[in-house]
Specification:
Helix content is 75%, strand content 0%. It is an all-alpha fold. It has two domains: 44 residues, Orthogonal Bundle (Arc Repressor Mutant, subunit A), CATH 1.10.10.60; 136 residues, Tetracycline Repressor, domain 2 (Orthogonal Bundle). Helix 4 packs across helix 8. The model has no long low-confidence stretch (mean pLDDT 90).
Length: 199
């Protein structure tokens, strides 16, 4: 049995990215990816269970490492506002990159196919924002936030951060993504969040 390698996995993802860009999801096939990477379909299936799994992995690999760096900012602190504002500004910065916006557009356009949407949610947003919900729950335990459903609270914060900036970027509208404006936007979102949930 041949051993899986990170280099081979990355080569498959690179080839798949080119195939999906050229043919779209519907037109792409595991055969086309195998031909592009220079191997067999059997090799692809050792790394990815299906075309859908390959697509989801490609989408998530483009953004998850950067997203984890952002969520790593959620550390206990006596200054909850500062922690959330720093997180919010970094979240906006990473989500307004050309790569991140492209991934979101692709996710939206293909999410309804063969369970892709659920796979993307379970392996991406759900895992990441569960970290925020855990952080919020710890802040409730510390008495800095009032006791509510931490998942709902985390989704409210996400909605306030994404409102206007990311929503506009996804549809191609102009967005001021200068660091100062992102910090101001994050501060306003956090202020509204703390007014709603502050202890």
């Amino acid at each position: 049995m041949r051993v899986k390698t990170d280099a081979k996995r990355q080569a498959i993802l690179d080839a798949a990215g080119a195939v999906f860009r050229e043919m779209g999801f519907a037109g792409a096939s595991m055969t086309a990816v195998a031909e592009r990477v220079g191997g067999s379909k059997a090799t692809l299936y050792r790394y990815f269970n299906s075309k859908e799994d390959l697509f989801v992995s490609l989408m998530l690999d483009a953004v998850v490492n950067d997203a984890n760096v952002t969520f790593d900012l959620l550390k206990p602190s006596d200054n909850l506002r500062q922690t959330l504002e720093r997180f919010g500004a970094r979240f906006l910065q990473s989500n307004l990159t050309e790569t991140s916006i492209s991934v979101r557009r692709n996710m939206f356009s293909e999410a309804w196919r063969s369970g892709i949407g659920e796979m993307l949610y379970d392996r991406g947003a759900k895992r990441l924002w569960s970290r925020m919900a855990d952080f919020i729950e710890r802040e409730m335990d510390a008495g800095r936030l009032r006791r509510v459903d931490p998942w709902v609270a985390s989704m409210h914060l996400r909605g306030m951060l994404e409102a206007d900036k990311i929503n506009r970027a996804i549809i191609g509208a102009a967005v001021d993504a200068r660091p100062r404006h992102l910090r101001e936007h994050a501060a306003k979102a956090v202020d509204a969040f703390l007014r709603a949930y502050g202890a």
